Structures are given as C-alpha cells and as structure tokens.
Amino acid sequence: MNHLADHTAVVLAAVALDLLLGDPRRLPHPVVGMGRMINFLERVLRRVFGNLRVAGMVLLVVTVGVSYGAAALLLYVAGHVSPAAGFAAGVYLAWVSLAARSLHLESAKVAKALARGDLPGARLALSYIVGRETADLDEQEIVRGAVETVAENTGDGVIAPLFYLMLGGPALAIAYKAVNTLDSMVGYKNERYLEFGWASARFDDVANYVPARLTALLMVLAAPIWALSGGDAWRIMRRDGRNHSSPNSGYPEAAAAGALGVRLGGANRYFGRIVEKPTIGDPVRPLTLAAYSGVVRLMYASELILVAAWCVAMVFG
C-alpha cells in the first residue's frame, strides 16, 4: 500500500477499535504517562522558576514536545522493524487518542442509574465526568450535566483528536491529547493554576478552535438522521454558540441543544459557590433521558459523517 492508503487504513482501524472496544485500559496508555510526566514537571518547574507563567509555558512545550517526539519515534522504529509493526503502532496510537465509546460508557452509568430511580447513584456517576458539585442535583439537572458533558466532549474527545489524526497522523493526534490532558490537569482558573496553567489553557483554546466549530456543523448535519432538527441546531449554534466561558465549548453544546430542543447552561455549584452560566437553547422539550440518548446518537453520527467525508476526500481528492 502507498502512504495515503496506509494512513486511511490506520484511521479506519482506529475508529473501528474505539467504537467496538473503547479505551484499551489493560494496555499501556500514553495519557497515563502524560499525567505522570505533568505531575513530575509541575513539582520541578515550580521550584526552578520564580515566574509561574513562564514555568507553565515550559511545561506546555516540554509535555507536548516529548509526547509528539515519543510517538514519532515509536512509529519510526516500528516501521523499520516491519511494515506490519509500523501499521500496528500507528493504529494503537490513533486508537488511544479517540474516546467516543468510553465517553458513551461513562455517561451511560448516569443514565442507567436514573432509569432505575437511583438518584444518589446517578449523582455519583455524574461527579466522575463533570467538574460541578452533584450532591444536590435533581433528575433534570443530572440529565443536563450528562448532555452538556457528552456534547462538549464530542468536540475535544472525539472530533478534535480525529481531526488531528486525519491532518497529521497518529503523532499529531497524540500531541493533541497532550494539550487536552494539560488543560484538564492544570487549566483551572483558581489560585493554584491561574498563572501556572495559563499557557496550557490558552493553547487548548487555540487547538480546539476549528474542531469545536467543525463538531457543531457535524451535529447540524447529523440531526436529521435521527429525526432531530438540523435547522434548530444551526439556529441555536449561531445564536448561543458564544454563551459559554470557553471560546469553544459553547458551539457543540448549542448545536446539540438546538437539535434536541432543550435548554442547557444555568446555575452550577463549584467548591460551594454558585456560578450562573448563560443559558444555551430553548426549553421546547424537558431534559429527560431521551435528551441524553439523543446527544449520544449525535456524537456517533457526527464522528461517522466526518470519517465518511474524509474517506471520500481521500479517494477523489
């Protein structure tokens, strides 16, 4: 096979493995290594640099550079062992960069608990996938949290790594995962990370700028497949896409809200403090488990539309 065919085969194999098996938890995972590296570097860099913003910039450069370099080295070495080994290494790195199945499985724990009337269990399951406090949430607020996190993470957990995988291969997808992992670990606007995590948070915003908007457009296209409203998805995306503290997350959330006919956003509690967020969407329908099922379907359809469009482009481009 030529390079283009190899690249296409790697992407398709990785997507298939993710959809069928989810995250390969029993195998060595690059994100685990990234997390350990970030923790180690944070301790060192805080001691070495007096300026925390500079320390955070060094953290960003080293973490992303090492992650990309290690992935590229693995691909190089495996490719020189044999074409099959190179292909396997590429598929593995691409597979671990995708998270559609895992996002579905983790969020489904919330839905299953709600379906059996277990509010405490649903609150606990939700607490593992959102940053807000969940202990006092009612059923609609629990569903809102699940819908919001699936919509947002369709962008940075599914479409964004797939976008970078298609654009630059497995090493670039791993570099994106490093950026995303940095943001999730140090990109907080609190006293500890406001300066130290500034560079990671800003670079994550840059890296997700195109993928977030692409995700929203894919959701608009995906909505009619499930008898949802593509027109309302487009309208709400344009109207409410900026109604979010993140410059990116509001776009997929708004497209999903419009397609589902629900209202997202509103009050959340963080560390004992109520934070009022702008609302996204119109409350045409109540926030029920049907909304959760709908956003999961939007996630899968958006991913498959992107894969199909890319394959067509590879064949005829």
TrEMBL record:
Converts cobyric acid to cobinamide by the addition of aminopropanol on the F carboxylic group. One of its GO terms (molecular function) is ABC-type vitamin B12 transporter activity. Pfam families: CobD_Cbib. GO terms for cellular component: plasma membrane. Pathway: Cofactor biosynthesis; adenosylcobalamin biosynthesis. Belongs to the CobD/CbiB family. It is found in: Cell membrane. PANTHER family: COBALAMIN BIOSYNTHESIS PROTEIN CBIB. The gene is cobD. This is Cobalamin biosynthesis protein CobD. NCBIfam families: cobal_cbiB. It comes from Citrifermentans bremense. Keywords: Cell membrane, Cobalamin biosynthesis, Membrane, Transmembrane, Transmembrane helix. It is a multi-pass membrane protein. The chain crosses the membrane at residues 54-78, 84-103, 162-179, 210-229, 295-316. GO terms for biological process: cobalamin biosynthetic process.
